[in-house]
Design brief:
Blueprint lengths: L28 E6 L4 H11 L5 E8 L3 H11 L3 E4 L5 H7 L6 E4 L1 H9 L4 E4 L7 H9 L3 E4 L3 H17 L2 E4 L2 H10 L7 E8 L9 H5 L3 H4 L9 H9 L1 H14 L6 E5 L5 E7 L4 E5 L5 H9 L13 H4 L13 H12 L3 H17 L7 H15 L9 H24 L3
Parallel strand pairs: 1-2, 1-5, 2-3, 3-4, 5-6, 6-7, 8-9
Antiparallel strand pairs: 8-10, 10-11
Helix pairs in contact: 1-12, 2-3, 4-5, 5-6, 6-11, 6-15, 6-17, 11-14, 14-15, 14-16, 15-16, 15-17, 16-17
The chain binds NADPH dihydro-nicotinamide-adenine-dinucleotide phosphate.
Length: 419
Amino acid sequence: MASAAVLWFGEQMSAVPLRNNKAAASAIRTVTVLGATGSIGDSTMDLLRGARDRFRVEALTANGNAQALAKLAREFNARFAAVADPSKLSELKEALAGTRIECAAGESAIIEAAARPADWVMAAVSGAAGLKPALAAVDRGASVALANKECLVCAGDFFMQRAQTAGARILPADSEHNALFQALSSGNREELVRVIITASGGPFRTWAPADIEQATLEQALKHPNWSMGQKITIDSASMMNKGLEVIEASYLFALTPDQIDVLVHPQSIIHGMVEFSDRSVVAQLGTPDMRIPIAHCLGWPDRIVGPSAKLDLAKIGQLTFEAPDFERFPGLRLAYESLRTGRGATTVYNAANEVAVAAFIAGKIRFGAIARLVEATLNDWIRSGNLAPLTSADDAISVDHNARNRAASLLPQIARKAS
Ligand code: NDP
């Protein structure tokens, strides 16, 4: 194994450290959790609860859930607690009265939380709002466990460049990317042939196109394996989530679209695999529980004791695999296309999908129209000559904003059009 500071992918990808660095593991680690009151935040706090002797909490943040945030801040004796919604500051202050925990509100307070000196930061704010805080942690060279997809999908190139420049370590927290992160340590970049990210296939895996077109919100929310928030569950049903993950993998590990394959694996036990030049395929397995990849990020470069269920393959019996169907799930095809197009196209893909999912939840479009709206927005964006490299967070946020407006303006005609 390589010595202390050697990072996998050498000069090209040093932001994602893929060689163990045991020398760096030491005493108490300070941690900050951005998005502490969400689903990923909850899993992270659960792990911290079980390893109090190894971690001290510096800062915790939420959007508007001041009560839940204050409860966590008290429990973990955090030094700083911040809500993004300024109208919640008085509620937070009141809930923290009698403690020495500092509190603040607004977007700048979330950025301040990320900028405070914690060794390790969980970036689990949802949506594009997570970008600037994650960059604040990256810029001071922290180890950043990255759950927020938008940092990479909206701004992947410069996000990874900034991490590399600052010497920050990006620890992939999404289960598939964490699996690749673990499997990639088995070889070198020159030996890599491809990575394979698995997909459960979602609730519509076996459905006919006409049924997928008409699927209801209730049906889309019935994920077979994972318990997650509403947006990501709908994205799993459309396989847009897998598309977002293909894009994430490309930026995280500096891979071309041709080096990333998707494999449908309904049991969600194998999360990711890496094929090397000798045709060895190295996989990471585990029960579908986000605490497993988060625990890996939290302990890295060591491993902590995790509370998740032991994997019992004999009980599971069979692991099965299928090729993805790009026709029934056009969102996956569009992800590859936008990745190949580059220059902001993945930002547009994500923004249009968010508008489409919100419209589906609001009953304004059919399930099948989600991908149609994304495709129409991408085509419109490309036609209007808007493609350009993104060089700053403001650039990415501006493209995101404009693409949302464009998707919203295309929405009525997509809603009217039958499949
Ligand atoms: P949740 O919606 O459950 O939680 C989001 C968190 O971010 C909450 O703490 C919320 O605070 C906070 N938040 C929301 N908006 C803002 C804002 N504008 N400014 C500051 N904080 C904000 O999301 P998840 O935990 O499910 O997901 C977080 C990220 O991780 C997403 O990008 C998602 O795609 C990604 N991810 C999630 C997985 C999962 O299993 N859930 C798996 C892999 C990736 P409040 O509670 O006050 O609203």
